[in-house]
Amino acid sequence: MALIVQKYGGSSLESAERIRRVAERIVETKKQGNDVVVVCSAMGDTTDELLDLAEQVNPVPPAREMDMLLTAGERISNALVAMAIESLGAEAQSFTGSQAGVLTTERHGNARIVGVTPGRVQEALDGGKICLVAGFQGVNRETRDVTTLGRGGSDATAVALAAALQADVCEIYSDVDGVYTADPRIVKNARKLDKISFEEMLEMAAVGAKVLMLRSVEYARAFNVPLRVRSSYSSDIGTLVSGSMEDIPVEEAVLTGVAHDRSEAKITVLGIPDTPGEAAKVFRAIADAEINLDMVLQNVSKLDNNRTDITFTCPREDGRRAVQMLKSMKEAAEWQDVLYDDQIGKVSLVGAGMKSHPGVTADFCEALRDAGVNIELISTSEIRISVLVRESELDKAVVALHDRFQLGGEEEVTVYAGTGR
Amino acid sequence: MALIVQKYGGSSLESAERIRRVAERIVETKKQGNDVVVVCSAMGDTTDELLDLAEQVNPVPPAREMDMLLTAGERISNALVAMAIESLGAEAQSFTGSQAGVLTTERHGNARIVGVTPGRVQEALDGGKICLVAGFQGVNRETRDVTTLGRGGSDATAVALAAALQADVCEIYSDVDGVYTADPRIVKNARKLDKISFEEMLEMAAVGAKVLMLRSVEYARAFNVPLRVRSSYSSDIGTLVSGSMEDIPVEEAVLTGVAHDRSEAKITVLGIPDTPGEAAKVFRAIADAEINLDMVLQNVSKLDNNRTDITFTCPREDGRRAVQMLKSMKEAAEWQDVLYDDQIGKVSLVGAGMKSHPGVTADFCEALRDAGVNIELISTSEIRISVLVRESELDKAVVALHDRFQLGGEEEVTVYAGTGR
Fold first, then answer.
1. How many domains does chain B have?
2. Closest alpha carbon within chain B to A20
3. Labelling B120: which of A314, A332, B43, B320 has CA 20 to 30 A away?
4. Closest partner residue to A83 among B57, B78, B146, by Cβ?
5. What was the pLDDT predicted at A418?
């Protein structure tokens, strides 16, 4: 008998009919002899509707109240799934994040899980019940206030519960049936992976694969919780995320997939005095504004004027704000100019095999050259190569790399979509 | 400085605009130098929508999960009102029933408040904050499960909090601006009462005045919490419910008002053997089916056959069920017949003055006679006379009694409506 944690995304729960379908799957898992804990996101558009109401009563709503408001969404879906399970003759019990012992930091709207004490959940499991836990929420240990976990919060709840309960596997259900070698909407013969190591999944998630949020993969890796990415609408077994890259024999290590990301903007600060501390000014300003940097590149100093350029990427939604701030510093810092470009895209190749196969970078660049795609910026890790290209050429770049590294399968894929929270 | 508890019904909160209006009133009360605790019902139709969803996933939803589901409604309105208050520059903090220390019995869907330990609310009040407490919900002390309080639950929350916090007054806001001498939709010159004693309000609520639920008035009376019934849409001071009837000097004691009720059905069991224990069979069967009796009448035994008839009223929604049950017992109990009639209405006159004014019953019956209304059943208490009449003659009876006892004012009233939960 295994203990299985299942997480269902909002689109899998958007109507009474879908909730009943999810309940059937849960009861089926239970009937196969497993203990089952289920984490639910809010139904379909509930969260957006609540955000909209909040906006109408207060354009800058206080974070604590926002959390109280938004957590209602998961309580609703949670209770409804429990009811649907009981209508199928199985026993269910629902828990709020607080009741399930999900303890978090104090930061409203974007709290982190600091621990899970699922005593009541364990008790209900021991009593033969299917347990439902409201995702995306917890309780701040100090003030006993309700908190929410930010983007990817329900996945994080599921993984943290799985870790605390020592579950055998944490299944993440959405409308995506696994991790693919590339986005099947762009690459027709993209192949679903049967298995991927935590490290590779981390790199894929970090560079734009939306199927899993980075934080959940990090948490799963830290506590060694195997994840399985599956679709709510099929019986396909999905993709297993588990194990270390180190465990993959060198001979088997291959390239995992191509990820892409069109959510970033590129900012370049030109003519920064090339003396110690001048570059730090740029990054301190960005950090103080709570903007996340992704790629960073500093050119070697030009000999003629002893000045350097710094280029970095950040979320497109923060781009304008970053530029305004940097422009306001330009005079005092004696920079020559600040440039902004949000017509860019990032394409990445990820795979443990990269370490043992020299020449991957050369093949990568040649593939793009042959496709007529110009590279604007390169950044690499041990198992990843990422480049910035024109956004208009992004799809072409993804297809070219996927082909060059022979990642495709024989069949064409038709379904693919985004992810919940 | 006074401590004021305010309760707002669902229709007062049905849109973002109404929530902002409510927030203005709350902040105004605070600015006048009062401490303010606010209890909110769920927004407009939220509860019905949730009930509808539950029905779709499970026609017989488990009560515990139903409570988890429904309490989301009050959490939402609560958080939104807190946000609206903060947008007006005041400080607010919202609490769930559980956080506010509302402890209840275990009975899901219809729990009773057994105690309130509002430590966190008091702390926030001491810190100068406006406190918002989600109505209609509490937590079962033994299992720490979320419970709901059934009909009138938000009023009960407000009154119980007011009692625990020793508030100066508990204001009940809805779309009704006070307690009237009769329903202004029926009696054009119905007069709003400035003040009414707890006992009189209890009788009025018991016989159909919908402005306050019986349980809230009972709670308020037990803990001596003055209630004020007011409208969310006007600055009218409403009706104060407080004090004992005993405190009203006999010379001032008058008749309070005329209430009516068209929610009951009449059942008559004919030809019951007139021996000890035979009548009890009827009432035991009704009690076991959890049907509430209202009026009960047993005729004197007819001399010729030593049999008696019993007539009683019960909620119309339970009427058919009661009749079916009684008919199934008919043979064994040797009753002659079971009759059912749901075309009836009840009209009642309430007032402390009844005690000191002989002849009220005679006037009452004559008023109905003069209006051509036939009386089918009479029942009285110390300060109330109620009769059953044909439902089609109910309005006529209300007007006739209101006129005869000169309860009306000089002006005509135009607004009146139902109440929330």
1. 2
2. B57
3. B43
4. B57
5. 39
Interface test with A, best of B45, B60, B67, B68 (most A CBs within 10 A): B68
Residue A235 in any domain: the answer is: no
Q: Which residues of B21-35 are buried (b: 16+ CB within 10 A; e: fewer)?
A: bbbebbbebbeeebb
Domain boundary (B125, B158, B174) is at B174
- A57 contacts chain B (CB < 8 A): yes
Asked whether the beta carbons of residue B79 and residue A60 sit closer than 8 angstroms, the reply is no
Q: Which residues of chain A neighbour B96 with C-beta distances below 8 Å?
A: 68, 146
Point out the residue among B23, B62, B96 whose CB comes nearest to the CB of A86.
B62
Q: What is the distance in angstroms between the Cα of B10 and the nearest Cα belonging to chain A?
A: 16
CA pair distance B278, B284, nearest whole angstrom: 10
Do B82 and B27 touch, CB atoms closer than 8 A?
no
Band (pLDDT 50/70/90 cuts) for residue B290 is confident
| For B13, nearest residue in chain A (alpha carbons) | A57
Tell me if chain B has a CB within 8 Å of the CB of A3.
no
Rounded to an integer, the average pLDDT of B248-261 is: 82
Under the banding of pLDDT at 50, 70 and 90, the label for residue B41 is: very high
| Residue ranges of B 286-345 with Cβ closer than 8 A to chain A | none
Note whether A51 contacts B: Cβ–Cβ < 8 A: no
Given this model, what pLDDT does residue B415 score?
44
B252 & B169 share domain? no
Q: Are residues A133 and A279 in the same domain?
A: no
**Is A206 part of any domain?**
no
Q: Do A8 and A155 reside in the same domain of the chain?
A: yes
CB contact under 8 A, A58 and B84: yes
pLDDT at A93: 95
Contact A94 B68 (CB under 8 A): yes
pLDDT digits (tens, 9 = 90+) for A4-40: 999 999 999 999 999 999 999 999 999 999 999 999 9
Final residue of a structural domain among B122, B144, B174: B174
Same domain, A146 and A283: no
Q: Which helix (H) or strand (E) holds B72?
A: helix B63-87
Same domain, A272 and A418: yes
Contact criterion met (CB below 8 Å) for A398 and A180: no
Q: What is the pLDDT of residues A261-317, one digit of tens each?
A: 999 999 999 999 888 888 888 999 998 888 888 888 887 766 667 888 999 999 999
Mutation site for A-interface testing, chosen from B18, B38, B74, B76 by largest number of A Cβ within 10 Å: B76
What is the domain-level CATH number for residue B336? 3.30.2130.10
Domain assignment present for residue B194? The answer is: no
Contact B72 A76 (CB under 8 A): yes
Which stretches of chain A score pLDDT less than 70? 250-253, 301-304, 411-421
Task: For residues A168 and A303, state if they share a domain.
Answer: no
Q: How close, in Å, is residue A282 to chain B by CA atoms?
A: 35
Residue B237 located in a structural domain = no
> Residue B373: what pLDDT?
95
More confident of the two residues B270 and B358? B270
Min distance A21 CA to chain B CA atoms (Å): 10
Q: Where are the alpha helices (H) located in B88-197, listed in sequence order? A: 119-126, 153-164
Q: Residue B61 belongs to a domain with what CATH number?
A: 3.40.1160.10
Domain that holds residue B129: 3-174
How is residue B59 written in tokens?
């026609």
Q: Taking Cα atoms as reference points, which of B4, B65, B78 lies closest to residue B39? A: B78
Q: Which amino acid is at B246?
A: E
Does residue B267 sit in the same domain as residue B169?
A: no
Whether residues A319 and A421 fall in one domain: yes
Predicted TM-score (pTM) of the model is 0.83
CB count in 10 Å sphere of residue A335: 22
pLDDT at B421: 39
Give the pLDDT confidence of B110-140 residue by residue, as tens digits.
Answer: 899 999 999 999 999 999 999 999 999 999 9
Block residue for tokens 């625990």: B164
Contact with chain B for residue A94, Cβ under 8 A? yes
Q: Do A75 and B75 touch (CB under 8 A)?
A: yes
Cα separations (Å) of B86 from A57, A58, A404, B147, B308?
A: 10, 8, 58, 29, 66
As a whole number of angstroms, the distance between CA B281 and CA B278 comes to 5
Q: What is the pLDDT of residue B131?
A: 97
ipTM: 0.80
Which letter does DSSP use for residue A418 in this model?
A: -
Question: What does the alpha-carbon distance between residue A258 and residue A402 come to, in Å, rounded to a whole number?
Answer: 6
Q: In this complex, do A69 and B59 lie within 8 Å of one another by their Cβ atoms?
A: no
